[in-house]
Structure formats: C-alpha cells, structure tokens
Amino acid sequence: MNKEKYESWTKEFMESWKELDCERTLKTLDKNVEYYENPIDKPCSNFEEVINLWNVVANNQKDIDYKFEIVTFNVNTCIINWQMTRIMTKTNETQEIDGIFQISLNDEGKCTYFKQWRFTR
C-alpha cells in the first residue's frame, strides 16, 4: 500500500465522521475488520458491534473539526496522528482529542485492521 492510499482512506474516514455520516464511515471498513475502539479492550466481535459504536456518533457530537498526518507506513500498516475538536451535544462541552490510528487496508482500500489510542481534554 502506498501513502496516497492511506491518505485517501483517512480523509474519507475523517470527513464522513465530521459530516456525521455513519453509513459512509462504515463503508470505509471491511465487514471482517478487526476493530479496536480502545487499545486495551478486546476488538469488536463482529461488524454489528462496530455499527452500534458508530450509530451513536450522530446523536452525541457536532461541529467537528480535524486534521491528520501520516506518521509512518509500509505496505501492510499505517500509523496516523489525528487531532479533533468537537462539541458533545448533551453537555455542550467542547472536547479536544489527540489520537493515533493504526490501520491496515485491503486491495479494495477498505480497512481490515483498526486500532486507536486517544487522549481527550
């Protein structure tokens, strides 16, 4: 995989998140993705769990702004540093997030491995 493919995937993933378009976000993921919402927890056991995680996004956040940078990559894996600001809808609280994605993509450009680390302020 080359850097452009990783950048394209990350832009689509983050832009669909910003637009609160969870169906579009889910289309960036392979149905058999190994998906870690939290690095110390077990991955989602099936795609239905991933869907459930993303279905709440449109209701609990808004006014998302983001940026990202590819830190390193090889043919199998990419590490992405991302930052985001968002407003949590229930509390109207602004959050700042600094995070890392570790991803792998298949030949169709869908994510087959997703793990994230994040710090929220």
Furnish the topology, listing elements before pairings:
Layout: H1 3-18, H2 22-26, E1 29-36, H3 47-55, H4 57-60, E2 61-73, E3 78-88, E4 93-105, E5 111-120
Parallel strand pairs: 1-5
Antiparallel strand pairs: 2-3, 3-4, 4-5
Overview of this structure, please?
- By secondary structure, the protein is an alpha+beta fold.
- It has a single domain (about 5-120), classed as Nuclear Transport Factor 2, Chain: A (Roll).
- Helices cover about 30% and strands about 45% of the residues.
- The chain is built from 4 helices and 5 strands.
- The protein has a 5-stranded mixed sheet with strand order 1-5-4-3-2.
- A hairpin with a 4-residue loop joins strand 2 and strand 3.
- The radius of gyration is 14 Å and the shape is globular.
Task: Output mean pLDDT.
Answer: 97
Low-confidence stretches: none
Specify the structural class: alpha+beta
Number of helices, where a helix is a run of at least 4 consecutive DSSP H or I residues:
4
What is the ordering of alpha helices and beta strands? HHEHHEEEE
Tell me about the largest β-sheet. 5 strands, mixed
Share of residues in helices: 25-40%
- N→C terminal distance: 33 Å
CATH top level class name: Alpha Beta
Named CATH topology = Nuclear Transport Factor 2, Chain: A
Shape: globular
Measured by DSSP, the beta-strand proportion falls in over 45%
- CATH A-level architecture: Roll
Radius of gyration: 14 Å
Give the tally of structural domains.
1
